[in-house]
């Protein structure tokens, strides 16, 4: 080997070593960057959950303590952790870098900023959740999903780990050692060849030095032999070149005719190989699934085997169906899915709480309903594998910022082992995680899992909605929600806002009776305890049902017992807006019309009540104007017969005050008098009365009153 060759080998080896180290450094940095990004997002999420209640309660010292503990315990190279309020002012921090003096997260929406010292500042928004809304003052309005503050972390720049430097040094040493060994072996070979060449030269010199050898003849013979061999080699070389040229020309001629055929054949073969590879992959995947089902059958888990078999068949059908968006009324769709979960997944044994978004409960959404239903059913099944206590809550929200998204969050006590398999499954034979992963990939869904030790697990599913349109549905003005469990009530109270504009939560039945007496209550929702612990409750509720719409909820196992005791409708949990609206719509058509007769003459009151009572009306009576106003405040009437001369005030004044009440803006109020002049009738109309009824009542007058009440009731079946 020449000196140039050796130099080239050494330089090439050095370049190879440097290239390998460079590639290794890039791959290492890429891997560490990916791991670090995930850790940063998880840290920001946990910090947001941690500081959320303290931001609401304005507890700075507690936040500082938690931030310092997080900074010391985190494996990330954290330089500082900062918490900002919603207006961008600093709330708390472990330390405050000088270059962040003028920084505010409200002015920079990127979520990331590079600092002068090479470190990076990351921040995220702390949002108002149903759990944190209970900390707000009742006089303040806290919109779910609004910004509560910001959490920021300052991270040192990413550097290569010490382990990589040791590995790189080791590989570089190995490569240099290989080059040195190769050079040493080449030198040994060259040394042996040189020795053989020296021996050959010595033999020639010995021949030339023998006596009687003519050196000139020997040299002439050798030269002639060499010339003859050279001429033969040149002739053979020319013949080979001619043959190669002819063969090349022939191949070019043939290649021009068959090039297109070869390309087509190659393309067909590639397509066939690709199709065979897909079929083989699918067959192997199906084989592993059937093997797992066979193992479940051998272990005696026949019900689970049957369920997985049905899911596999459903998945096969869904794979053949193109994704086509469907328009559904979301509350009804959600209610049907919850019923499906209870029947197929034995969810009736679990205490389920569903919190609906008021905006979403009044919406028609367009999305891939059939595929989404199968995905949610599989996610619920995975969540139940990690369930430790029989409690599961589902928060449903509509996110409508740049694009419409459906957010479903399952919260439960337990770990997150089974549900994490749906994100990155390592067991190729796990049927449900594989099916779930396939559906998520096809729908473009996002699944995030966050778990806190000793607190539970939160599974967040994000789905894209094609379109969202709101419906004009009637709303109750005031609803009272009776629930002895304050934790459950704080959550479900937000869900009741989907059917009522004002929600009042109470914990005791005595408070309910006071509320009904002193204010207009359009609807009462009751969470029932066990029947054995509520002897007096069912009697009081039956009395209340006579005058106020009442709807009760209980656990599925107690449904038959409570339905036998109560006169009001009793539904099983979870409490859903679709079920409430459907049940109350049927009740509204059956409710009798309510009338109020105001007269200071008891004989007239008894006579009018007897006549109107024959028409199956509910008739209330009042002898004074104050009593009439009190009844009007706590009730809703379709017709009021108002006497003009009352002991405490005139009927005109009482009518004027009743007209100020929201529930009596459209009520028919008739002046009930023995005589009325034209000027008096004009005063009655100015006070808010619709017409005049001259005493006494007769069949024609009663028929006219019935007609007016029925027309008004058809327009207002549900108060709004």
TrEMBL record:
Residues 243-270 form a coiled coil. CDD domains: REC_hyHK_CKI1_RcsC-like. The keyword Ribosomal protein does not apply. It comes from the Bacteria. The keyword Secreted does not apply. GO terms for biological process: phosphorelay signal transduction system. The modification 4-aspartylphosphate is found at residue 643. InterPro entries: CheY-like_superfamily, Sig_transdc_resp-reg_receiver. Keywords: Coiled coil, Membrane, Phosphoprotein, Transmembrane, Transmembrane helix, Two-component regulatory system. This is Response regulator. The chain crosses the membrane at residues 7-25, 164-185. Residues 594-710 form the Response regulatory domain.
């Amino acid at each position: 080997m020449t000196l140039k060759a050796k130099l080239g080998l050494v330089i090439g080896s050095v370049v190879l070593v440097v290239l390998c180290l460079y590639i290794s450094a890039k791959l290492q940095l890429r891997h560490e960057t990916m791991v670090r990004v995930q850790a940063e997002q998880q840290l920001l999420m946990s910090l947001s959950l941690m500081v959320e209640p303290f931001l609401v309660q304005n507890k700075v010292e507690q936040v500082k303590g938690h931030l310092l503990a997080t900074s010391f315990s985190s494996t990330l190279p954290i330089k500082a952790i900062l918490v900002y309020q919603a207006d961008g002012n600093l709330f708390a921090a472990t330390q405050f870098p000088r270059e962040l003096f003028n920084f505010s997260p409200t002015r920079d929406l990127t979520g990331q900023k590079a600092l002068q010292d090479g470190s990076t500042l990351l921040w995220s928004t702390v949002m108002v959740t149903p759990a944190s809304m209970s900390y707000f003052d009742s006089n303040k309005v806290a919109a779910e999903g609004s910004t509560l503050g910001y959490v920021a972390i300052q991270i040192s720049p990413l550097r290569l780990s010490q382990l990589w430097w040791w590995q790189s040094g080791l590989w570089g040493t190995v490569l240099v050692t290989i080059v040195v060994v190769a050079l040493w072996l080449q030198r040994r070979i060259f040394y042996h060849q040189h020795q053989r060449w020296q021996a050959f030269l010595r033999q020639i010199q010995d021949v030339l030095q023998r006596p009687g050898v003519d050196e000139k003849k020997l040299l002439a013979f050798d030269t002639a032999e060499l010339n003859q061999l050279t001429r033969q080699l040149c002739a053979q070389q020319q013949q080979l070149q001619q043959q190669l040229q002819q063969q090349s020309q022939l191949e070019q001629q043939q290649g021009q005719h068959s090039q297109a055929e070869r390309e087509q054949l190659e393309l067909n073969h590639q397509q066939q190989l690709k199709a065979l590879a897909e079929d083989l992959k699918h067959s192997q995947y199906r084989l592993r699934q059937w093997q797992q089902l066979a193992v479940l059958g051998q272990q005696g888990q026949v019900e689970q085997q049957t369920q997985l078999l049905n899911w596999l068949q459903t998945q096969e059908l869904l794979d053949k169906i193109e994704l086509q968006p469907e328009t559904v009324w979301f509350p009804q769709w959600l209610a049907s899915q919850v019923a499906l979960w209870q029947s197929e997944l034995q969810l009736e044994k679990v205490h389920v709480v569903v919190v609906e978004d008021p905006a979403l409960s009044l919406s028609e959404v367009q999305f891939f309903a059939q595929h989404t239903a199968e995905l949610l059913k599989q996610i619920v099944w995975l969540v139940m594998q990690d369930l430790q206590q029989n409690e599961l809550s589902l928060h449903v929200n509509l996110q409508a910022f740049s694009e419409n998204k459906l957010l479903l969050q399952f919260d439960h006590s337990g770990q997150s082992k089974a549900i994490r398999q749906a994100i990155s499954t390592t067991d190729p034979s796990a049927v449900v995680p594989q099916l779930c992963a396939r559906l998520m990939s096809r729908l473009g869904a996002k699944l995030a899992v966050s778990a806190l030790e000793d607190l539970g697990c939160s599974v967040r599913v994000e789905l894209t909605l094609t379109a969202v349109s709101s419906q004009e549905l009637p709303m109750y003005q005031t609803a009272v929600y009776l629930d002895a469990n304050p934790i459950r009530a704080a959550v479900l109270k937000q869900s009741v806002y989907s059917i009522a504009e004002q929600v009042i939560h109470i914990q005791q039945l005595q408070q309910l009776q006071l509320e009904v007496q002193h204010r207009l209550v359009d609807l009462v929702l009751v969470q029932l305890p066990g029947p054995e612990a509520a002897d007096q409750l069912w009697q009081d509720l039956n009395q209340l049902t006579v005058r106020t719409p009442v709807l009760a909820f209980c656990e599925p196992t107690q449904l038959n017992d409570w339905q036998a005791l109560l006169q009001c409708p009793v539904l099983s949990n979870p409490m859903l807006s679709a079920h409430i609206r459907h049940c109350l719509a049927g009740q509204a058509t059956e409710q009798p019309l309510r009338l109020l007769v105001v007269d200071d003459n008891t004989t007239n009151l008894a006579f009018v009540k007897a006549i109107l009572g024959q028409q199956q009306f509910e008739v209330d009576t009042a002898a004074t104007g104050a009593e009439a106003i009190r009844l009007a405040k706590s009730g809703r009437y379709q017709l009021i017969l108002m006497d003009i001369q009352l002991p405490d005030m005139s009927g005109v004044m009482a009518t004027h005050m009743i007209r100020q009440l929201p529930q009596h803006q459209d009520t028919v109020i008739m002046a009930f008098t023995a005589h009325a002049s034209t000027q008096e009738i004009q005063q009655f109309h100015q006070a808010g009365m619709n017409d005049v009824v001259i005493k006494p009542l007769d069949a024609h007058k009663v028929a006219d009153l019935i007609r007016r009440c029925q027309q008004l009731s058809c327009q207002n079946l549900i108060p709004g």
